[in-house]
Amino acid sequence: VQLVESGGGLVQPGGSLRLSCAASGFTLSSYAMAWFRPAPVKERGLVAAITGNGVIKTYTDPVKGRFTISRDNAKNTLYLEMNSLKPEDTAMYYCAKFPGSMWTGNYDYWGQGTQVTVSS
Q: Both ends of the chain: CA-CA distance in Å?
């Protein structure tokens, strides 16, 4: 299993970024996927998650209405569209795989991360 994130960078407040996660070594459509960023252990830092079939999505409250998670199973790629970025969104963003088609339990694989910095 390999997850490789890309698309991070430096952006001004109010700007946008699109993160990508290229997956290999497993059938993407069989597993729920997520984006997370470092946070207190209790919250696990989940930013957004999506079921294996892409039908159901969930977001942490601070990003609702601004971020959109999506997936292209044919391209084995997960995305995170980030709009109206705020300085508090600054973090390393990681792509993660769940062991099943729903976001239950802990991630079993994650990538090396891509840095997002929101600053003027």
A: 37
